[in-house]
Amino acid sequence: MESSCGSATMSAVGVPPSLCRRFGRRDWHAIGHGMSGAEVWRFGGEPGFYLKIVSRADPIAVRELADEADRAGWLRAQGFPAADVIEFDGVADRCWLLTRTLAGRPVSAHWAETERDRAIDAFADVARALHGLPVGSCPFDRSLAVTLPLARSAVESDAVDLQRLDPERQGRTGHQMLASLDAAIPDQKEDLVVCHGDLCLPNVLLDPVDMTVTGLVDVGRLGSADRYLDLALATRSIASESLNPQFGDRHVRRFLSRYGEIEPDPARIDFYRLLDEFF
Questions:
Q1: Do residues 135 and 193 touch, judged by C-beta distance below 8 A?
Q2: What is the DSSP letter of 71?
Q3: How far apart are CA 98 and CA 20, in angstroms?
Q4: What is the Cα–Cα distance from 279 to 273, expressed in whole angstroms?
Q5: Neighbours of 259 (CB within 10 A)
Q6: For the chain, how far is it from start to end, CA to CA, in angstroms?
Q7: Cα dihedral across residues 133, 200, 46, 110: positive or negative
Q8: Checking phi first, is residue 158 left (phi over 0); if not, alpha (psi -120 to 50) or beta?
Q9: Which of helix, strand or coil describes residue 89?
Q10: Are 38 and 52 spatial neighbours (Cβ–Cβ below 8 Å)?
């Protein structure tokens, strides 16, 4: 995809002209689309900039982009390596988030066999550190009081992407999944911590030399939630044969042991994986 920097107005796709004027017309590289459908661009070398663009016609995507800007700033203030937000702005039909590119490789990158345990250990350590933040200081709420109504709203507005469901739920309707979700709500009180909200391997970056965490990305769903929200998605990501074949069940066990959850609750894991289908 080529940049729209030569255009005088906002085009259907491409980098906003205001950013082209500020940074120049060259060296913008399209790197695909995010999971929310956002256009994703990269500018320059190191450190460079990372740009997400969404259509205002998709209010959910706009809200999530604004949420990501707010949460990244808060997370950096807590001492975590989230992206440095340069600009959150927009025009009539689109809005965008511009951040500095973070160094490092995602945990989902290919690692030598001798490095894989260390990558999983770093992944578990940052989860434990994030969950160790004082939950009362977190201004963002992703508890069930917030997310269950959002899930119902997503079904009613046909916003659930039924083509991207986990294999065991393929072919189901949104209302069928909602009925399953209501039936599976955990009985126990939520064990609230500060959750990443989308804790999967691509969203944690590591220094390839010392295997320390250099970045937390896609933090638009960060907030206070049951710790199993993160544990469910992290273990699903580690165990995915199609997405992360270098890891597997042994690494799931290593992650949980390193984190400190020796005997995980399978019902809570299943519930939070189902809940994730609605977002």
A1: yes
A2: H
A3: 12
A4: 11
A5: 22
A6: 27
A7: positive
A8: left
A9: strand
A10: yes
Residue 85 tokens read as 């937000």
Comparing C-alpha atoms, which of 256, 261, 271 is closest to residue 187?
271
Q: Rounded to an integer, what distance in angstroms lies between the CA atom of residue 77 and that of residue 97? A: 19
Say how far apart CA 97 and CA 53 lie, in whole Å.
7
Look up 198 and say whether it is catalytic: yes
Which residue among the candidates 89, 191, 198, 210 is catalytic per the annotation? 198
Q: Tokens 């965008």 identify what position?
A: 96
- Judge whether 192 and 100 are in contact, CB under 8 Å: no
Cis peptide before 47 (omega within 30 of 0): yes
* Contact residues for 216 (Cβ-Cβ < 8 A; gap 6+): 75, 80, 81, 82, 126, 130, 196, 203, 204, 205
Amino acid identity of 8? Answer: A
pLDDT tens by residue, the chain, 279 residues: 334 454 333 344 588 888 888 887 677 888 876 555 689 999 876 678 999 999 998 888 899 899 999 999 999 999 999 999 999 998 888 999 999 999 999 999 999 999 999 999 999 999 999 999 999 999 999 999 999 999 999 999 998 999 889 988 999 999 999 999 999 999 999 999 999 999 999 999 999 999 999 999 999 999 999 999 999 999 999 999 999 999 999 999 999 999 999 899 999 999 999 999 999
Residue 3 confidence (pLDDT): 45
pTM: 0.90
For the chain, what's the residue count? 279
CB 98 within 8 A of CB 16: no
| Tokens, residue 110 | 């290919």
> Any idea which residue has 């999983």 for tokens?
120
